[in-house]
Amino acid sequence: MEALIALLVAGLLGMGSFCWYQSRRLKQLAAAGQRQNEVIGRLRQQAQVEEFERLPVSAFSSTAASVAFDAILLLDDDLRIVSLNRSAAALIGVEYPIDRRLPEVIDSEDLSELAAHTLREADSLDEQLLIGGSNFRARAKAIDIDGGATRFIGIALQDITDLVHLNRARRDMVANISHELRTPITRIRLIIEGLFLDADKPKRKASIQSLKEIAMETDALLWLAQELLDLSMIETGQAILRLVKTPLNQVVDEAIDRLESQAETKQLSIVSHVPQKLSVLCDADQLKRALANLLHNAIKWSPPRDAVTITAAEAGDEVIVTVFDNGPGVAEDARERIFERFYQADVSRSGDEGAGLGLAICKHIIEAHGGRIWAEGNSQGKGGQFLFTVLKADEEVEPAPMAADESEQALELPDSAAPV
Question: Looking at 175-317, which runs of residues are DSSP E strands?
Fold first, then answer.
């Protein structure tokens, strides 16, 4: 009996010891778990802080790449596309360009060579190249990470086609204006030298003719200067239009009168078939200037002893005016560009006359009236025609009130000048 009791006591003592040990172990595990939770909490908080600090940078990079006008590409060391922005995707036009090599998606040997050279030399290069008929400024830069163990290539492509066209137009402008200024100035100088270097006293008839030629060349210089001023004022919005109900035949007749002397030099006649009852909403001075430029263009290209014809017809709420001549006409591939500033369709046949501003001014004036202007060929044979639309006037429209300083800025067109 005593042995049994001793055995029970020993068992109870062992069980108690085991429970105490397990309790202690549980407390230690709970403490360790609490410490681990504290560590996890601190790590989570630190990660949140780092994410909060990284988010603006990541958002800025993503937004900048997405809204940039430049096409941006990131390539690996095998020239495969790793990432690109929307502009680059639009330029490439391939549905899944990621992981494809650059030469496979953009057909440009110059661009591929630029990327390969940047990869080899780790340089930052800036070149101008042609991609799909458009001019681009390409900038490539090597990006090394992991101490140079991995190298990426960043490429930015900026479309500068418009800038190239503007630069070409600027060169053409300088060349054309230099020629237009040099020719009349040289002629004036030769005429004056001829007047004062004759052995005998100049005859009155010859002197009068020389003075007429000087006046004509002076008018040419004045017209060129006025064209430059008009184009500048129109494009900057300083040319003020006053749309009023005006008889169209009156505007046409005044434009014909201004070109009559020029037509006589080629023995040309200008014929108007504009109905007297037809009225349009226009600024008479501006529309007269546009018509004068179109008539000058027709006179320049018409063969001698021929005729230039002006017609007008109603078309809904518009009036279509046509200036027709029997010259060579405008080639189909030049009918859009003919209205660009300083553009000349055929310098070799035109004798390099004019600075290429007249039709550009016509386009600005007609569009400011809410109309359209275009060129067509003659379906019946040789010759060409320029057509434009202007609003038909049904009721009297009063001009908008204008401030005093605006009236001083209104265009003043020299009636005595003849277009060149």
Answer: 244-247, 269-273, 279-282, 307-315
Token pair belonging to 50: 């780092």
Q: Are 347 and 369 in contact (CB under 8 A)?
A: no
pTM for the whole thing?
0.49
Residue in the structure block whose two tokens are 């070149």: 127
- Rounded distance between C-alpha atoms, residue 326 and residue 299, angstroms: 10
In this predicted structure, what is the pLDDT of residue 393? 87
Cα dihedral 11, 17, 21, 23 in deg (nearest 10): 90
**Integer Cα distance of 315 and 312 in angstroms:** 10
Superfamily of domain 67-159: PAS domain (3.30.450.20)
| φ, ψ at 202 (rounded to 5°) | -60, 140
Residue 334: DSSP 8-state: G
Residue 221's identity, in one-letter code, is L
Beta bridge partners, 245, equal 281
CATH code 3.60.70.12 for 240-409? no
Q: Which two tokens stand for residue 394?
A: 């049904």
For the chain, report the end-to-end CA distance as a whole number of angstroms.
142
Give the start-to-end residue ranges of the domains of the chain.
67-159, 240-409
Q: Is 191 exposed, middle or buried (0-12, 13-18, 19+ CB in 10 A)?
A: middle
Closest CA to 328 of 363, 353, 303: 303
Separation of alpha carbons 294 and 82, rounded Å: 56
| Residue 356, SS3 per DSSP | coil
**CA-based nearest residue to 356, from 262, 420, 266, 282:** 420
| Cα gap 232→250, rounded to integer Å | 27
H helices, E strands: number in the chain: 11, 12
Could you list the mean pLDDT of each consecutive 10-residue stretch along the chain, which spans 420 residues? 66 66 75 78 71 52 56 88 86 85 88 88 83 88 79 88 80 67 73 63 65 72 69 65 91 92 87 93 91 89 90 94 88 78 54 64 90 79 83 62 36 36
